[in-house]
Specification:
mainly alpha, 439 residues, 20 helices, globular
Length: 439
Amino acid sequence: MENNTCCPDQAQATSELGLAPERPGRYDALGWLFVLGGLTVAVVLGLLSDGIYMNDDATHYFFARDGWRTLVEKDGWDRLSVMWHRWGRIGYTAPTSPVAYWLGFAGCRVFSAVQTALIALLAWRSARRLIGPGIFAAAAALMVWLQPLTFRLALTTLTETTGALYLMLAIFLYVRGNRLWSCVTFSALFLTRDEMLALAPLVALAMLLDARRLTGGSLRKALATKWVWAGCALLAAGPVLYVLISIPVDLPSDGDPLQIFSREYSAEYGTGPLYWMAARWSEQATPTIVALGLLGLGLLVRSLWRRKPLVRPAAPAAGVWLIPTWTIAYLALHSVFFSRGMFAHGGEGRYMIPLSGLLALPPDHPIAPTAGAPADSSASTARQLSQADFQARLLPRLASSMCVLTSSKKPRVYPHEVRLSPKHSESGASTRKPASAAR
């Protein structure tokens, strides 16, 4: 899994456009301030908290704690079903279990805060690679922390935070050119949020398109590229190994990894119109941040469609296309699930948290270097534009975000805490029961 097999044209692309290697920017300190400042606040609030978000995070904690206990205590190997139980999600249970066993719920809160900080860090570094170092790239870290439900779940133990970390890490690795390691991370993501396995073909398609670009546009040569097939095998490796290893484990009927396809589902958690998840997305991230995120994705698509080079041209084109396509496909997937009442989908805003990092990428247009310009002129131009636009563009955005977060006088409510009135049910959302541990 060497980097040169993943992106053989990286050095050539950078050299052809006359770009200097990445160097620390003057706004990097601001990026670290956003990452570590948010982490500090989340850790303090997490240690002071003594409640839970809902019964699901308490259940995930018990699965993780008892899962590690089966490995370290006498005769624990006879109870491996706890670690491998499908409900706990092995991609979440495995890394969380030692923390839960040794440090308890407080340690798990800190662990979730650290994961959210890593999401902010990866969002910033991905933005830095796409548009160059500057105030807008650093602001990506802040935009992660400003998403209300993302911050709320940084204080508890749910799989959406871990799924967001895996997804952002996978996208970051792919954009850097580390495609095979990206596939390994995507495979771990499928073991944490199993519905994302339906989007695996997007990654395979991205690799095929990159291989075609690297082979001069030949589809036949692209299909014969070894690393494409290796990447596809790595994508499937996690789910396949999980099913195979689970066979000798004495799992209960509701803990089998394939049980998700065989169990009967009902609409007990509600159904709604196709636009329901788009509306709940605003609850998760505020309307302002959702609008800014979609604007950024639109500008990125426009830049790619016009084939203008990014500031860091070493980013594989298909890898950058993964950012908007995965976002749209994920929203569509959950919209269909809730609309059809599939897989006990509750239509909750927290299901959009895995997109936190992608949504935080800044709504700025990639700056193309001028032909024949010196190596440092592109970075200098980017910095000058960022400085000039700071007061006119970024401050109003941050102010709007804070207004949305603080202007409501009524406490925020969630669907697992209330029952919808008949008036709301008639508008398309069905009355649902409190969330249970069956999901």
